[in-house]
Amino acid sequence: MAPAAPMQSPAAAPVHRAVATPDDSAVVKLIEKTHFPNGEEIDAMSILHIAKGILDDCKSTPPAEASEEGEGDSATLTPELQFEVYRLSVQLSYRSLEAGDDVQEKTVSLFNMLSSYSWEVKVALILAAYVSSYGEYWLIAHTYRDKDQVAMGMAALLQMSDLLKEDNNKLHTLFQPLHKLLNPILDLCYCIVEVKEFFLSVFASSNTTAGFPGLRATVIICCYWIIRSALICTSYMHSLIVKDPRTTNMDAELDSLARKIQPLRNRLTNQLFTCYKKLDVIDKIDVVGRALKTNDIDNMKVLKLLVDARDDKQTSVFDLFSKKQVSLETLKNKTVLLLISSTENEVLFLQEWYEKCDEVQRRQHAIILFPVEGSDQSSMKSKKFTMPNLYMVDDPGSIDPTVIRFVKENYFQEGPILLAVGPAGRVVHPNALPMIWTWGSKAFPLTLQNEESLRSSETSIMLELLIKDLDDKLLKMVEEGKKSICLYGGDDLEWIERFTGKAKEVANSLPVTLEMFFLGKSTDSVSKLEKIIPDIYSKKLVSESPKLSSAKVRSFWAKLQRILLSRAQYLNKTKQQNTDEEEGVLQELGKLLDKSGLRGWAMFSKGNHIALIGDEDVTMKTLNDFTKWKLSLGFEGALKDHLERLEGDDYSDRPCCHLHFSDELSDEILENIKCPECHRRLGKYTAFLCHNQRPE
Predict the structure, then answer these.
(1) In 607-665, which ranges are continuous DSSP H helix?
(2) Is the CB of residue 34 less than 8 Å from the CB of residue 108?
(3) Structural domain boundaries of the chain?
């Protein structure tokens, strides 16, 4: 008997193709005929939050663990709404797979199913319905790789087995066009919810639309394209599984939809903003806040809000490098860094940083000095700056006080900050200064996500980060981790000679290759270092190469202070997730800053491992006792072990630490930095140090 012909999969039905669509007015008339809201109030925002959570998890590989917050969100849907999402999900799949390619007719049929809901609820439900199917495929794909028997059976039934047996990244790659389209769709849904809130704030009734026909029409058009896109996305998603050969052009179709959705979002937000200004019923703070939290086609809208919010005609900024007014368009599609500071110290620091950046980084970034209360920028125009792409608002007084208030309340809470606004007009980092302090030109891109990535590796390479600008040869020694390194300093030359002699004696007797470098004291000025360092080299109390300049040494101490504060600020924000190792690195940095202000100090290390940081007494006692520990744990390990024994023996007799910070960093010092010795909270005091030298 001849085998039966295989049954054609329903998914092999003709895939939807974009057909000629009617103009906007025709779409509005067509869709309005399906709209009969029953007046029931449904929280569309909570539905969108659930959909967004699923989409975010599906972007990660493997998917992120479910949080308690996410579980709580799912409980906000009533049983009726849960059933409605399920019903729409089935209908989306059915409509996308049935024969016929009139996508508009199928879109209208979905609107008929949603006739009793308000516009924002329609799109929220349809997006949730699509995401439920999307999430099912994604969940099966990832549990399949864990050899879950149910997932393997489901994959076989859904024809996914062959796809999942291929490259692990294959499914992620195939779903990428959907990710690209779903993000702007979600943003557009949020904008439609905002329109609803606008009508409620003005009329206390979502059905009152008189006087805003253009805004309402745009909402209808946006709803049409969201539901149409959901239908086409569903068709594309199913076609991936059955590998229908007729779907070869669907990537281009999804890309075309993405290009359609983004201008619609811009059109809707612009109309909404115009309505707000016309009625003068919105707090400018809310406008700026929403703009800084959402992506736009570029950064122009946000920048205009920030620098000339009171005067629509002012569209220029002052270039502090060329001393000319330039158009705000100069900053279009760049990452704009708003420097908010009551002093000029950070401008000088950023000039040094800018010189070390490559040409591409310079072109992609610009800095604007943003005025806050208590800062006088009037003198900045006459000063000479070597950094291009440094600007200030031509007339700081033109900025709306409510905008300054928003920035101060939400970002400028303590110390200078560098607010990073991305090319799409959204804040990508609330303060990028700590990133630049720590990683310099290696900090790019200046985003929160990149900082998390850099911080994850920071603990293991902290010493490299500290000395990378001190000297290239010294940095290479640390990176290779073959030689023992001693950084030491102070201003007691008698102690220095005794210490270096003893350190060399111990190293030669073990034997250990020890390189020694003099860094003075953390409180030394460049002029003081210039008087001490030549004497140190002439007496051969340091390694001959590399020779460290006074300016580089002074820069090292300034960097240590900044990295210490940066690390403390970061750990303060993430204190519930910090490891003992991360906290330990912070304590080591604090101990180095403390000891380096004394008349004698030393730090021994190998690679990125710090073995000992001690003052003149502890360091000398450790070296003098080397016969007690020289045969155990290796040089660095034995140093560390013996130091801990000493600290345990006479802890109560030693004073705790003092951390000295330069005046320019005073606003950035946290109130909860811990003592590196006893781990209690440090108090904050002001001290005055004279840098003049006493006569010989």
Answers:
(1) 616-624, 626-629, 634-649
(2) yes
(3) 21-282, 300-446, 459-641
Q: Tell me: the pLDDT tens digits for 164-180?
A: 665 555 666 777 777 77
State the Cα–Cα distance between residues 541 and 663, nearest whole angstrom: 32
**Cβ neighbours, 10 Å, residue 376:** 10
- pLDDT tens, position by position, 231-242: 988 888 877 766
Domain with residues 300-446, CATH architecture:
3-Layer(aba) Sandwich (3.40)
User: What is the sign, positive or negative, of the torsion defined by CA atoms of 595, 599, 605, 611?
Assistant: negative
Per-residue pLDDT reduced to its tens digit, 16-39: 444 345 578 888 889 999 999 888
Q: 89-120 burial string, b = 16+ CB within 10 Å, else e?
A: bebbbebbbeeeeebbebbbebbebbeebbbb
DSSP 560-588: HHHHHHHHHHHHHHTGGG--HHHHHHHHH
Nearest to 598 by CA among 499, 670, 530: 499
Closest CA to 295 of 326, 258, 327: 258
DSSP character at residue 674: B
CA–CA dist 363, 386 (Å, integer): 15
Buried-state track 524-543, b at ≥16 Cβ within 10 A, e below 16 = bbeebbeebbeebeeeebbb
pTM over cut 0.85: no
